[in-house]
Amino acid sequence: MRYGLQIRNELLLNTVIFIYPLEIQTLWVAKNLSGLGIGVFKVKILYIEDNKTQRDIMKRMLEMLGGHQVVVAEDGKDGIKKAAESQPDIIMTDSRLPDMNGTEVIQTIRKDSALQSVPMIVLSANLMGEGKQTALEAGADGFFNKPVDYEKLTSLMEELVASKK
């Protein structure tokens, strides 16, 4: 069986327009979709969020829209443990968790020599933007108010991971 990319045109009653072998498919996707941010930039993300609904929505969004691998944690201590275990490319944390705040999570993770250079982004539901300066001073590389603009978030993630390499 041959694997390949099939592009179908809905207006032509699902007629196959072209089929490429898998090797060509990979090159075509990388070349033509990289500017759109679709499925080319993929990283392992640790997302620390105590609200199950928000955690599930962000996880699905990052996996489905970005093709990222997402590890989740529901509080700061679990997040610190999973950061050490999973060695993520980027860490996102809520600013307020039941056991500690995002700043404490950042400071604790930054003490681990294996994780010192991992980019960290704080997400906050505080509409006044309070805590941004504190988070940045603690070592956060970015700060977003919720709801998060997905395009801006992924753009920053890509920039941070690229600058780390």
Strand order of the largest sheet: 4-3-5-6-7
In N-to-C order, the SSE pattern is EEHEHEHEHEHEH
> And the CATH topology of the largest domain?
Rossmann fold
- Please summarize the sheet with the most strands: 5 strands, parallel
Low-confidence stretches are: 1-39
> What is the number of helices?
6
> Structural class of the helices, strands and pairings?
alpha/beta
Write a short abstract of this structure:
The chain is α/β, with parallel strands linked by helices. It folds into two domains: 33 residues, no CATH class; 121 residues, Rossmann fold. It is 42% helix and 22% strand.
SSE order and pairing:
Layout: E1 4-9, E2 15-21, H1 22-33, E3 44-48, H2 52-66, E4 69-73, H3 76-86, E5 90-94, H4 102-110, E6 120-124, H5 132-138, E7 142-145, H6 150-164
Helix pairs in contact: 3-4
Describe the structure.
By secondary structure, this protein is an alpha/beta fold. It has two domains: about 35 residues, no CATH class; about 120 residues, Rossmann fold, CATH 3.40.50. About 40% of the residues lie in helices and about 20% in strands. It is built from six helices and seven strands, in the order ββαβαβαβαβαβα. The strands form two sheets. It has a five-stranded parallel sheet, with helices on both faces. Strands 1-2 form a two-stranded antiparallel ribbon. β3, α2 and β4 form a beta-alpha-beta unit. α3 runs parallel beside α4. The N and C termini lie far apart (about 40 Å). The N terminus is likely disordered.
